[in-house]
Amino acid sequence: MTLLEVNDLSVSFVQNEGWFRRRRMPVLQQLRLTVNTGEVVAVLGASGAGKSLLAHAILGILPRHAEVSGSLLYAGERLTPQRQAELRGREIALVPQSVTYLDPLMPVGRQVRHAVKRGDKREAQRESFRRYRLGEKVGRQYPFQLSGGMARRVLVAAATASGARLLIADEPTPGLDPAVMREALGRFRELADEGCGVLLISHDIASALTIADHVAVMYAGTIVEIARAADFTDEPAGLRHPYTQALWRALPQNGFAPLAGAPPQPGELAHACAFAPRCPAATEACLHELPPARELRHGLVRCIHAS
Ligand SMILES: Nc1ncnc2c1ncn2[C@@H]1O[C@H](COP(=O)(O)OP(=O)(O)OP(=O)(O)O)[C@@H](O)[C@H]1O
Ligand code: NI
């Protein structure tokens, strides 16, 4: 069953410049993505690609100067701002990227219990604390008394104990030791196997691939490819977009080949293929429009040359 459907989602930030001029800066362009129940979909991309903005758009927590177009459906139902507010934290839970999302004035155990919307709150908190190796006395502490890694574990504990059906985890693992990281990723996989949908945002392809079914690759504000996780295990030729292939070659086991250059600033190449300046396959035609998203080999690609 389709849990989340993102259709042609675009986001721009509108800035006032002086008295009369307003500048629109496109930051997300025509995103299309689905998350089914039982699935982990990884969203990969470099810093600034727009991963967190996608998460915030789904949850309805973008800043006020954001202009949003396109549609979002949750279990077939339109996600309006009001519906987002109703579902946030109940049906749709976020593991936020920053530990500043914790309430500084509330003991963290209470925050986790607060997040639990189904069943016995105390038991759910105890269980998730055990799972993420948070001692019992940690529950009585305030966020400022915790290390960064502990605070992060509290965020994962709160979201995974919430009982939500769609879990959006925004870079949930940096700073966690490898055992806790495996535990957290394993828990996301388990929740998917129990019928949830998981959107896992990450920089770390290798660890995301250990649990993902599908991978959406973002570059400069758009999704350039949706691949199956299995497409990453063979030759890069199985991947559809030159950027995804470059990411694959940059993995240690595939030769660590770095990709020269950097992505453009948001909005800088909105009407072209933003990857063209770094792409070995680019031609003049790549600079004329945002390449349309098209289906290719059970996936999706935005590249006019992909075949
Ligand atoms: N409130 C805002 N106002 C203006 N621009 C913003 C705002 N928030 C984000 N941006 C811009 O939008 C782009 C995407 O940001 P986003 O946080 O989604 O990136 P990300 O892929 O999550 O990166 P990271 O991996 O570093 O978390 C960035 O270029 C950022 O500068
Ligand atoms: Ni982010």
From TrEMBL:
<keyword id="KW-0067">ATP-binding</keyword>
<dbReference type="InterPro" id="IPR003439">
    <property type="entry name" value="ABC_transporter-like_ATP-bd"/>
</dbReference>
<dbReference type="GO" id="GO:0005524">
    <property type="term" value="F:ATP binding"/>
</dbReference>
<dbReference type="Pfam" id="PF00005">
    <property type="entry name" value="ABC_tran"/>
</dbReference>
<dbReference type="GO" id="GO:0016887">
    <property type="term" value="F:ATP hydrolysis activity"/>
</dbReference>
<dbReference type="GO" id="GO:0015833">
    <property type="term" value="P:peptide transport"/>
</dbReference>
<keyword id="KW-0406">Ion transport</keyword>
<comment type="similarity">
    <text>Belongs to the ABC transporter superfamily.</text>
</comment>
<dbReference type="GO" id="GO:0015413">
    <property type="term" value="F:ABC-type nickel transporter activity"/>
</dbReference>
<keyword id="KW-0472">Membrane</keyword>
<keyword id="KW-0547">Nucleotide-binding</keyword>
<dbReference type="InterPro" id="IPR050388">
    <property type="entry name" value="ABC_Ni/Peptide_Import"/>
</dbReference>
<keyword id="KW-0813">Transport</keyword>
<dbReference type="InterPro" id="IPR003593">
    <property type="entry name" value="AAA+_ATPase"/>
</dbReference>
<dbReference type="InterPro" id="IPR017871">
    <property type="entry name" value="ABC_transporter-like_CS"/>
</dbReference>
<protein>
    <recommendedName>
        <fullName>Nickel import system ATP-binding protein NikD</fullName>
        <ecNumber>7.2.2.11</ecNumber>
    </recommendedName>
</protein>
<comment type="subunit">
    <text>The complex is composed of two ATP-binding proteins (NikD and NikE), two transmembrane proteins (NikB and NikC) and a solute-binding protein (NikA).</text>
</comment>
<keyword id="KW-0921">Nickel transport</keyword>
<feature type="domain" description="ABC transporter">
    <location>
        <begin position="4"/>
        <end position="245"/>
    </location>
</feature>
<dbReference type="InterPro" id="IPR027417">
    <property type="entry name" value="P-loop_NTPase"/>
</dbReference>
<keyword id="KW-1003">Cell membrane</keyword>
<dbReference type="GO" id="GO:0005886">
    <property type="term" value="C:plasma membrane"/>
</dbReference>
<keyword id="KW-1278">Translocase</keyword>
<dbReference type="Pfam" id="PF08352">
    <property type="entry name" value="oligo_HPY"/>
</dbReference>
<keyword id="KW-0533">Nickel</keyword>
<dbReference type="InterPro" id="IPR013563">
    <property type="entry name" value="Oligopep_ABC_C"/>
</dbReference>
